[in-house]
């Protein structure tokens, strides 16, 4: 079967993204074919494109989408043709995608395709970071870098719902109001303010037990300096480049600190964990504790421009590619 998809034949900048016709393989047992209605845009996809996370070429990008089940393979019982579903699986930058049925989650009636396409990966990331990597508790103060980004806007709302005081960092003044509207009690413009000094001021010198850092190289040392003794740095992304050349002695000198580099792939590896994480995501959205704002929409064919804007930090909140 033929379908249109965004593929790369070499690693590089947004210009390597090609919108082309491809052959979709026949369904294998345990797979479903999904007609995508909305595809989520995530920063991790720029890593696959650039080669930071090398992948075999040619490669169809895409990490999550929402759509309608178009066909089911042998042995599939959890969904049927015509069901609305969301999934977190590769190859989503396409009109049609073959997906393991175990990665498909039925969509509640109150969750739109657009919201679901932007929600599952980012929401699942927020869930495993806040509820599994470091289980935040009411009364704690936490620091979240890139609070106006796609994951940040979900996670800060969620953390506030859980009773945390949330400090967020942003890269421009126009993002301060956005972050405050999505759960941040305090917002620091890291380009014009000293993040460490502001965190000390906000916390009365105590600093914070956990820092969530999806930025990477540019914020690594700042994140360590914002932690209280025995605090945990959760480094979950590389938006500014990967963290390299770390001297472990720094962790001792700064207060017996911990650092972890977790991934959703590990935390959601089992079907049971994947389903539990997804259920929690849909639950907080259904309760109204987390609201999804889609601030950018691009045609799937214009994925290259979407990547340019994402890497230039011109986007806020969630972005959808429409097949």
Automatic annotation (TrEMBL):
Documented EC number(s): 1.6.5.5
Keywords: NADP, Oxidoreductase
MF annotations from Gene Ontology: mRNA 3'-UTR AU-rich region binding; NADPH binding; quinone reductase (NADPH) activity; zinc ion binding
Annotated ranges, domain Enoyl reductase (ER): 12-321
Pfam family, one: ADH_zinc_N
PANTHER family found in the cross-reference section: QUINONE OXIDOREDUCTASE PIG3-RELATED, QUINONE OXIDOREDUCTASE-RELATED
Name of the protein in question: NADPH:quinone reductase
């Amino acid at each position: 079967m033929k379908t249109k998809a965004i593929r790369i034949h070499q690693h590089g900048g947004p210009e390597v993204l090609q919108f082309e016709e491809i052959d979709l393989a026949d369904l294998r047992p345990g797979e479903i074919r999904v007609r995508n209605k909305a595809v989520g845009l995530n920063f991790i996809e720029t890593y696959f494109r650039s080669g930071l996370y090398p992948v075999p070429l040619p490669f169809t990008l895409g990490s999550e989408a929402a759509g309608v089940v178009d066909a089911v393979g042998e042995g599939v019982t959890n969904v049927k043709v015509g069901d609305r579903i969301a999934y977190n699986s590769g190859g989503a930058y396409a009109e049609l995608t073959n997906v393991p049925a175990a990665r498909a989650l039925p969509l509640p009636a109150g969750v739109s395709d657009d919201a679901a396409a932007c929600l599952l990966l980012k929401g699942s990331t927020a869930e495993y970071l806040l509820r599994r990597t470091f289980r935040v508790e009411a009364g704690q103060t936490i620091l979240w870098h890139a609070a106006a980004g796609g994951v940040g806007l979900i996670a800060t709302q969620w953390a506030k719902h859980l009773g945390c005081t949330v400090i967020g960092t942003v890269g421009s003044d126009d993002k301060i109001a956005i972050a405050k509207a999505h759960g941040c009690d305090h917002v620091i413009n890291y380009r014009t303010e000293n993040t460490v000094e502001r965190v000390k001021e906000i916390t009365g010198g105590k600093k914070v037990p956990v820092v969530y850092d999806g930025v990477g190289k540019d914020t690594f040392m700042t994140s360590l300096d914002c932690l209280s003794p025995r605090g945990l740095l959760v480094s979950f992304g590389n938006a500014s480049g990967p963290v390299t050349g770390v001297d472990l002695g720094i962790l001792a000198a700064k207060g017996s600190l911990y650092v972890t580099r977790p991934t959703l792939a590990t935390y959601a590896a089992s079907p049971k964990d994947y389903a539990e994480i997804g259920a929690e995501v849909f639950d907080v959205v259904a309760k109204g504790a987390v609201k999804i704002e889609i601030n950018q929409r691009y045609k799937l064919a214009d994925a290259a421009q979407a990547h340019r804007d994402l890497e230039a930090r011109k986007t806020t909140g969630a972005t959808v590619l429409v097949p």
